[in-house]
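Appendix B.2, paired examples.
Example (i):
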Amino acid sequence: MADYKHNQEEQKDTEEKKNDNEKTEEEKLKELIDQMKDLEEKSEKKGRKKPVLMLEFGGIFHRHPMLNYLMYYMVNLVVIYSIVTLFGFGEFSSQIWVPLLFVMIYTASEIVFRQYIMLKHFKIALKSLGFIFFFGYLTLFYLIDIYLFPNTLSFHNETLLIMFAGMFVVFRYLLTYLIKYVIFRQRGL
């Protein structure tokens, strides 16, 4: 009988310990939940940080296609002329209308190329992280320069065309980002 009472007391002790452990575990979980809520509130107060590096797949300046085209035309004209003259990659034709027409045709073909890739081959654009646009812009620039306007822009050597295309993509991205940032800031968006 004494053993039976002793076993019952031991079972009660183990049950009480289990209940105490469950209570402490529940208390620990409640404390963790409270800490998580505090962290969420702090992160909401700080606000979300903007990403440092953004990929732009076919952004637009304006919903109206003609205004968007004119804006890209002006940006392309400024960037192309600036890179070629500042870095001395080559020389433009002496007639002013020829480089203007060259950039106009390049901008139109670039917009068509970008829209085609975004509509028909979006997965490729994502998988290549936008490098398909670099190779497309390089190809477009080369084809227009060689076949439509053979004497408009002459590079000093062939490697400068590739360097120009890389710098063109980077500088144009930075300039369009700055322009969009200024426009959105003025609108309060």
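Example (ii):
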Amino acid sequence: MAIPILRENYYANFLGEENLPAKVGHVNLVVADINTGGSFYNSNTITTAAINTAYPVPTPTTVYSQGMGYASNTIVLAEPGTYSFDFTIQVFKNNTTTEGSLTAWLAVNSVNQDYTANTLSLAISSQIGVLTLHSHVVTTTANTRVGLLYAANSTDMQLRTSTASAPYPAIAAVTLEVDKIR
């Protein structure tokens, strides 16, 4: 059984003190619902078409999906519950000497979620960086749609995949992991 290790203070804010997991030594353990979860990615490079415009981040390739599906650039959660979302985006800056930034965030049923946004700024051309969001918790009803969106202040910003090159495997432009935790 998969057992994610989670921080007590983080979950106290979302689940309430009375619902905190049991302590085991110095580590708090929460047993994820292993019957509900998903892993998705995009192996295509995505170029920003217009600045300061929100775009959905497609994750069309499903590695694993149970109790959820992928439709219209969103993850559709079949069951009500509390879910943890983790994403990574490999960002590349193309052809310019001015700084560029890319911001990504979650939206639930097309409503942007406060405090889920992360920004990555790249100062020079041909620079690569990774934007991540770890364990953002969303409580949902049945058939909720959760989307990952992004916007950039420069059309030189890309969500870029990298092909395999020995000894390294290919790197997806975007990965998204979803786990039902309650």
